[in-house]
Fold this sequence. Notes:
Chains A, B, C: It holds the Pfam family DrsE_2. Chains A, B, C: This is Sulfide reductase. The structure is a homotrimer. Chain A has helices at about 15-30, 60-65, 85-95, 100-110, 120-125, 140-150; strands at about 5-10, 35-40, 115-120, 135-140, 155. Chain A is α/β, with parallel strands linked by helices.
Amino acid sequence: MNKKMNILMFSGEYDKALAALILANSGKQMGIDVTMFFTFWGLCLVRDPKKISDEDKSAYEKMFANLTPKGIEESPLSKMNFAGVGKKMLLEMMEENDTPSIVDFLNGAIKKGVKLYGCKLSLEIMGFKEDELLKEVKIITAEEYLKNALESDIQLFI
Amino acid sequence: MNKKMNILMFSGEYDKALAALILANSGKQMGIDVTMFFTFWGLCLVRDPKKISDEDKSAYEKMFANLTPKGIEESPLSKMNFAGVGKKMLLEMMEENDTPSIVDFLNGAIKKGVKLYGCKLSLEIMGFKEDELLKEVKIITAEEYLKNALESDIQLFI
Amino acid sequence: MNKKMNILMFSGEYDKALAALILANSGKQMGIDVTMFFTFWGLCLVRDPKKISDEDKSAYEKMFANLTPKGIEESPLSKMNFAGVGKKMLLEMMEENDTPSIVDFLNGAIKKGVKLYGCKLSLEIMGFKEDELLKEVKIITAEEYLKNALESDIQLFI
């Protein structure tokens, strides 16, 4: 189709990530070239729960790393989370409707070739390390994001 | 003007809906073709309070339907809601300034011909039924949204 | 470069403002023409703490003016604010990494020539006065925002 979509994923919430990944998967199915750029809380969505480590981290960075969701499945709802009850309710409803899980959508996006980038500056601020993220995530600068966004037909900040 | 704006309305909050509807009305006044696509919490904004029913719903769907705002007037503020006090304050300030109410903006948008769409997959996940929504809302898929967004000059995720 | 980016700044939160200002500064460094349009809570980010006054305000407007952040440094985090503890943690981590402060980014944006606009209708609704804002902020209507956004290559709602 020769069209491009660029999603800047700032939020680290389950429902927003689900919306973004549905768009990414649908876009790829239509032949659109899709890029996701993870910044700030969005980086929590692409942490690899099996690779998180305290090594080389300051006291604040360790604290912060422990207070934030370790991967996409731990991410909370943006609304009505009710300490996890609202999210459980949503997950049950998704199961009733045979909706794929968020991990299915993430893996689908990777398999279909959605490009995943992480923001260099955010990574430094949050104290996360590149090798704690999913191996498909490449680190780029804000300038590189802007270059990509300028070439895209759709840009969304989520 | 032959220009198009596409708003993806993910949030179900009063202040964000107000911002979106002000843009939609202003756009139409300038001759821009405006489309709003309601997904997730945004669907609560286009529920018709007079048509909400428990029929054909699972236990979770009934619970969820009762915990979420029944139409645009019930929607909370995204910030400083303070159990409704912040919203009441904002409404009083809008009245002092003779700002039209959110329902006026929604009806204005409909009258001016803003196209309202609901997301098929979100509707299923949330357990809402098409006939519980405002009659102006047509249900489409994420692919149809993307097709429309690709043809638009402005795309916003709100 | 002859390219344009338009950021609609709806949110009044520290982390979202930081993301927006990093994009604005990076864009300018690349030769992109950058416009920021502050609406609703976003207006709190461009209040000048030294110029806030109760003059000519109704009871509700005075209350509201006192409950909202007085300038960009007072703005809370969108997540994990924990009554200020989360924000303090983030600030410490930024200092450890020699990341410039948010005021540095705001001043950098102004110095580089990022255009700052405030939304006329939001200003009225929130009860803020034009002369309480940073002097670089010009008040425009939603229609003027849309005209600018239509001419832009990137539009983001933050």
